[in-house]
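Quick one, probably user error.
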């Protein structure tokens, strides 16, 4: 990685600061809130903050079946989920964005494992979790499963260390197309290369 391991003078090339797999998994398990995004029928992006759990390589959430986001997901299952490390023991400046397909579950089998697991993850204490799970288990509540198709991760701690000259070059990822092809094209378009 000779080019990206050199001293840097700006933050244009950031795809090299991706989370490693262990940090990505740790963040997905540590955080309990995300921004869940969908498109409205008139193609406007929308998002709300929702509680989630990460299980079996999927993001799992819940909502009332009457919510606008559920109608939108029934129409178009393409969604994204954004997660930050802020507020976790991992500290700030780590993020994950997942582009994926959302599956709506209304079956009893999914609800039976999901509600107790979700409630315990959010409440921590078994008695409080049981009561929370009981409230969740209502006739209109559904479970959402986001199946990841694309990941965008970012580790601002690496970027800071790199700009300070203290990052081990082996921690840099290979630049993505946005920082190879597209960055070069934008520099040329602006006559900066």
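Nope, works fine. Designed sequence:
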């Amino acid at each position: 990685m000779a080019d990206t391991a050199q001293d840097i003078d700006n933050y244009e090339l950031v795809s090299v600061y991706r989370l490693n797999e262990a940090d990505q998994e740790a963040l997905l398990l540590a955080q309990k809130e995300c921004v869940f995004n969908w498109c409205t029928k008139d193609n406007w992006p929308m998002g709300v903050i929702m509680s989630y759990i990460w299980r079996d390589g999927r993001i799992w959430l819940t909502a009332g079946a009457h919510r606008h986001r559920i109608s939108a997901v029934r129409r178009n299952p393409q969604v994204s989920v954004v997660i930050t490390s802020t507020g976790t023991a991992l500290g700030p400046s780590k993020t994950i964005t997942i582009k994926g397909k959302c599956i709506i579950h209304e079956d009893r089998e999914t609800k039976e494992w999901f509600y107790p697991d979700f409630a315990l993850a959010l409440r921590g204490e078994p008695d409080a979790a049981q009561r929370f799970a009981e409230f969740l288990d209502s006739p209109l509540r559904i479970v959402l499963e986001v199946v990841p198709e694309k990941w965008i991760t970012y580790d601002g701690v690496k970027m800071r260390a790199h700009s300070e000259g203290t990052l081990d070059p082996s921690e840099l990822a290979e630049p993505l197309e946005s920082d190879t092809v597209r960055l070069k094209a934008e520099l040329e378009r602006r006559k900066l290369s």
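Strands lie at 33-39, 45-51, 53-55, 58-64, 78-84, 94-105, 141-155.
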